[in-house]
Design a protein that fits this description.
It is a single chain. It is built from 16 helices and 19 strands. It is an alpha/beta fold. It folds into 3 domains: 365 residues, TIM Barrel (Alpha-Beta Barrel), CATH 3.20.20; 53 residues, Oligo-1,6-glucosidase, domain 2; 73 residues, Golgi alpha-mannosidase II (Immunoglobulin-like, Sandwich), CATH 2.60.40. The protein binds alpha-D-glucopyranose (GLC). The site of alpha-D-glucopyranose has 9 residues, from loops.
């Protein structure tokens, strides 16, 4: 049955932040050769696809999300030949490779921008967004940068402002310009021809802005602790209607190749998120669903979320779930290590493609960053609110050696203090470790079509209990999750079952008759008759 589904439906995606995964050349920053060394580990873990955060040439103002050449590899990460070798090595192991695609902006050092800013009549001027100053000489609109301050920077050479949704070093591209569109679609073609299996599309909700340049309205619910960007509702700078036609072009291009996937980074409410599936396969295959990160962590809230999402999905749309990424505080820090095990079971037993963030399979936590080692420009621009993303981007913890087996040199971000115990080498041989929990969950999902691709059915729950079943022809599997620290009872709906896995990894094959006790923070996967 699973074979009737595409790899990106039945499979599991694993996000690698290349700067922090594995450093093969000893400069303290991860690289492509390092990733190749660790492909065997990823195969052992059981995932199906890796998504690499950006590897393109970049001044690294936003650590690779400021691209100065969309069709090359930054020397820090390796060469195009290294990339080809990575694709070949991954494919030889049955792993797919997904790249980050950054259509919203380039680096200010991209030759396109250097030409565009040279003069008002440069042919590339219109590849970016330029406006005259307002009457008072200030920015043309009230639009805010995600990283703090105005989203407009005045360029003295031509005395106009250019728009940047993020840093001034990341000018936004003008997707209304046909030549820019062609150039950026060409980027997709370049990598598809090289054998990549898909793209995670960065900042997709932002690629088109209001053509009338209207001011964004104030956000009535804004609290300063949310950061300055949240002070306005970004109605004229995000999620504009024209974006769907552009996505349609990307999709058409991807569909001309065999079995490729487009995944959109879209921080949007559920009803808007699902619009990005498009009609009749004209949207992205997977609009990233971040709501497990965004919602409060309790059984009733998460149960409601799953029901709302399942109900909102258009016909034929394939769901997906995410628990962490390079922009969000670590799962184990957000909800605690005990609940992080429960979250792993939830993620890997829900219906829809799961995406894992490197290190979450170990229970890696946010690493406190001393002020002198802060790297993230967001933290530098808007300090002290906990918005900085360095804590969740620290080196992968491979072993207990001084740099955690990540590098022979001092890494670009500090290694976690707990790497002596929280590391791959140690957890591989500990049968009850978080790592072995992930591996067992992945294995179970792979072996059981009900878990991989079966239907989702909510089951009654109350208090801290969340339970549901997954159903495929001839197979019914229940999942019961205890979101609280106290034990509780769960009753199988019809007849006895059998425990397949506990988050505590200490009960297997136990029969379940009238009721089963879930210990605090425990989750069970149960085969039903
Ligand atoms: C996305 C990326 C984030 C980056 C931003 C600008 O949100 O995930 O890391 O800073 O886009 O490219």
């Amino acid at each position: 049955m699973s074979e009737d589904y595409r790899w990106w439906q039945r499979g599991i995606v694993y996000q690698i932040y290349p700067r922090s995964f594995m450093d093969a050349n000893g400069d303290g920053v991860g690289d492509l050769a390092g990733i190749v060394h660790k492909l065997e580990y990823l195969r052992w873990l059981g995932i199906d696809a890796v998504w690499l955060s950006p590897i393109y040439p970049s001044p690294m103002a936003d650590f690779g999300y400021d691209v100065s050449d969309f069709e090359a590899v930054d020397p820090m990460f390796g060469t195009l030949e290294d990339f080809d070798a990575l694709i070949a090595a991954a494919h030889a192991r049955g792993l797919e490779v997904i790249l980050d695609y950054i259509p919203n902006h380039s680096s200010h050092r991209h030759p396109w921008f250097e030409e565009a800013r040279a003069s008002r009549d440069n042919p590339r001027r219109d590849w970016y967004l330029w406006r005259d100053p307002a009457a008072d000489g200030g920015p043309p609109t009230n639009w805010l940068s995600n990283f703090g301050g105005s989203a407009w920077t005045r360029d003295p050479a031509t005395d106009q402002y250019y728009y940047h949704a993020y840093l001034a070093e990341q000018p936004d591209l003008n997707w209304r310009n046909p030549a820019l569109q062609e150039a950026m679609l060409g980027v997709l073609r370049f990598w598809l021809d090289r054998g990549v299996d898909g793209f995670r599309i960065d900042a997709l909700r932002q690629i088109v802005k209001d053509e009338r340049w209207r001011d964004n309205p104030p956000n009535p619910d804004w609290r300063p602790a949310q950061g300055p960007y949240q002070a306005l509702l970004p109605v004229y700078t995000t999620d504009r209607p024209e974006v769907m036609a552009l996505i349609g072009r990307m999709r058409q291009l991807a569909d001309a190749y065999h079995d490729r996937v487009l995944i959109g980074e879209l921080y949007l409410p559920l009803q808007r998120l699902v619009a990005y599936y498009g009609s009749n396969g004209s949207g992205v295959h997977l609009p990233f669903n971040f709501h497990l990160i965004l919602r409060a962590w309790n059984a009733r809230g998460i149960a409601a979320l799953v029901d709302e999402y399942e109900a909102a999905l258009p016909t034929g749309a394939w769901p997906n779930w995410v628990l962490g990424n390079h922009d969000q505080h670590r799962l184990a820090s957000r909800i605690g290590p005990a609940q992080a095990r429960l979250a792993a079971m939830l993620l890997l037993s829900l219906r829809g493609t799961p995406t894992l963030y490197y290190g979450d399979e170990l229970g890696m936590q946010d690493v406190p960053i001393p002020p002198e080692r802060v790297q993230d420009p967001w933290e530098k621009n808007v300090p002290g609110l906990g918005l900085g993303r360095d804590p969740e981007r620290t080196p992968m913890q491979w072993d207990d050696t001084p740099h955690a087996g990540f590098s022979s040199a001092q890494p670009w971000l500090p290694v976690a203090a707990d790497h002596g115990t929280v590391n791959v080498a140690r957890q591989r041989v500990d049968p009850r470790s978080m790592l072995n929990l992930y591996r067992r969950l992945i294995e179970l999902r792979r072996r059981n079509p009900a878990l991989a691709v079966g239907a989702y059915r909510a089951m009654p729950g109350a208090g801290e209990l969340l339970s549901y079943s997954r159903v495929a022809p001839g197979q019914r599997i229940a999942v019961a999750l205890n979101f609280g620290p106290e034990s509780l009872l769960w009753k199988p709906p019809n007849g006895p079952g059998r425990i397949l896995l506990s988050t505590h990894l200490d009960r297997v094959d136990e029969p379940v008759r009238d009721a089963v006790e879930l210990r605090g923070d425990e989750g069970l996967i149960i085969e039903l008759p």
